[in-house]
Amino acid sequence: MPYDPNRNALWGVANTLGAALLAFGVAITGPAAASERDEAYHRDYIYGVPDDPSEAWLMANGARLYDNWINALDADKPEGTHPAWPASNTKKKGGVTWRCKSCHGWDYAGKDGAYAKGSYKTGIKGVRAFAGKDPAEIHKVLMAPVHGFTHEMIPKDAMLRIAAFVSRGQVDVSKYVNADKTVNGDPEKGKPIFQNICAACHGFDGKALDWGDPGDPGFVGTEAQGNPWETLHKIRAGHPGVEMPALMAFPIQDLVDLLSYTQTLPAE
User: What span, in angstroms and rounded, lies between the C-alpha atoms of 209 and 227?
Assistant: First the structure.
């Protein structure tokens, strides 16, 4: 199809008209209808639940909720700072303090892991001790007053997926990522995974997407070198609120190899 400089503008008009017609129950066909359908599919992938969810999907979704349940559920951000957030930590406040990872860490070790220092230092223990525990018991802990959650904030089915991830989905990250940020993987084994899957969005050099600030980039290599614990979590689970694929179904060592390869990519 030859390039048409008016095509994007016309597509936007069609989408707006299509949305208006749908609001009045008018059946539509063509680009606007296709766009509405595609948007529904995209939202379903990001926020929906499969009719018959696999174990890997449940673990990945629970991990995304652990990361940022607000974005994963397209929910309203709680007002104020979490009541259990320690006064000693003045670097963080507001909605970020309500995320599970903000207290318990990307390595799930809390005060005994990477969050023993830095801007997320809280002195709060991790969730490693709950690995293998009954998800129903973990759910009770999550609903205890210290956490401050309600099922109006996080629906029960979503809360149970967080509990399932804590029980069955977390791994002992210390086996794979060392305190000095080196990774116990083989970058040559991780290269084909990155080039065949991740590069579709990130590019072969990992620089196609930049979520950083001007002069302070946020590329795959930037994150993998600076925070390999977070990068491994997101490799396994995807990123909440967007269509980043979750690779939870892959063997963990394959994903550690992938993480090792991403550390070889440019950081800036």
Answer: 17
The SS3 call for residue 149 is coil
Q: Check residue 226 and give its pLDDT.
A: 97
Measure the CA–CA gap between 45 and 68, rounded to whole angstroms.
16
- Residue 218 CA to residue 221 CA, distance in Å, equals 8
The count of structural domains within the chain is: 3
SS3 110: strand
- Residues whose CB is less than 8 angstroms from the CB of residue 72 and which lie 6 or more positions away in sequence, other chains included: 47, 61, 64, 65, 158, 240, 241
Handedness of CA 252, 257, 260, 266 (dihedral sign): negative
- Prediction pTM value: 0.86
Is there a single domain that holds both residue 99 and residue 152? yes
Q: Which of 183, 189, 171, 169 is nearest to 226 (CA)?
A: 183
Low-confidence ranges of the chain (pLDDT < 70): 1-31
Which domain does 140 fall in, by range? 55-170
**Quick one: 83 and 153 in the same domain?**
yes
Tens-digit pLDDT profile for residues 149-188: 999 999 999 999 999 999 999 999 999 999 999 999 999 9
Quick one: which of 248, 267, 255, 244 has its CA closest to 189?
255
Distance of CA 72 to the CA centre of its chain: 8
- Alpha carbon distance 90, 76 (integer Å): 23
